[in-house]
Amino acid sequence: MTFSREILGWYRRNKRSLPWRNTRDPYKIWLSEIMLQQTRVAQGLPYYQKFVERFPKVEDLANASEEEVLKLWQGLGYYSRARNLHAAAKTVAYGHQGRFPDTYDGLLKLPGVGDYTASAIASICFDRPEPVVDGNVYRVLSRFFGVTQPINATGGVKYFKTLAREVMDGDHIRDYNQGIMEFGAVQCTPKSPDCGVCPLRSGCVALQKNTIDSLPVKLAKTKVKTLYFNYLVPVSPEGKTWLRQRTGKGIWRNLWEFPLVETPKEALIDEVRGGLADFPQLGNAVNVYRYNENPIVHKLSHRHLHTVFWVVETHDGFEGGVSFDEADKYPVPVLIAEFLKTFKNSYF
DNA sequence: AACACGGGGGT
DNA sequence: ACCCCAGTGTT
Prior knowledge:
Adenine glycosylase active on G-A mispairs. MutY also corrects error-prone DNA synthesis past GO lesions which are due to the oxidatively damaged form of guanine: 7,8-dihydro-8-oxoguanine (8-oxo-dGTP). Belongs to the Nth/MutY family. By secondary structure, this protein is an alpha+beta fold. It has two domains: 212 residues, Endonuclease III, domain 1 (Orthogonal Bundle), CATH 1.10.340.30; 123 residues, Nucleoside Triphosphate Pyrophosphohydrolase (Alpha-Beta Complex), CATH 3.90.79. It has 15 helices and nine strands. Strands 1, 5, 6, 7 and 8 form a five-stranded mixed β-sheet that branches. The longest helix has 16 residues.
């Protein structure tokens, strides 16, 4: 029994029922693949349902505003995926007459579609014999074949791609690719895989050598930095506030937030008062006070954001003010969304 | 080659 | 606290 036959057999017996498993529509497959980049199925699933309902066809997505796309994406993270999704939808709808490319090379040209996603769409929708190599595949291959090359070094990436191509079943690529990923997600898990009932146990090098827990090998990632965020929460006499859109290329690009004062360490109230000068709309502040006693530590994969919200009550209204209910219509980071929820309940 | 980019869930 | 997740794009 070959590796690929075992994978196909296991997949037939164990595959989960997922909405994108019942279609070859490249729009739906593409949508699911973008959403599942660095994202668990359980987290992406409700977003997939929302997007398919609101945007049944790629033209619907192409014709939406970026604001709406980001709002629907809110909470899923890695927001460049949403911006690229929107851009790619426009390309497909208006540059390719609504048809997705049906080759690896063609798909790879779409923004947000890299090696993995191009291979996934080409194989699942068009039966192209392209191997997928995602986090699951790295784990399964490294363990079964006992590969100790780091999965996140240039040489390792090439090695695993070549190995994946050698052991795939090009005649059943659609099920094989989904099968090896599903096998990694369900059976060959990162922690405590149940090797006792694994159909591949007799041929698994790592199991034989007792190296399951040390595979795959991964180079250390860069360490987390701590940043100090001070959000100024304007409140006018009419109870309105003020949001602005983030620009540039850092985190949360194009999402909305309160005026932000970033400091090298935790700020004192006088520093925050000084920061008001950067925002002319807040020049008539009559009262500034700290909202949360202890900083909220919002954890991203590469940043810890120590955040304090400062309520800034003004004497007059300001240009561009919105009510706190209207604020919920804007795409905002989870950090801001959670603040809005508690603040509305406590302040008013 | 190294880093930026979110948020949630498991251990 | 650390790891991982159906990775991609930029520097």
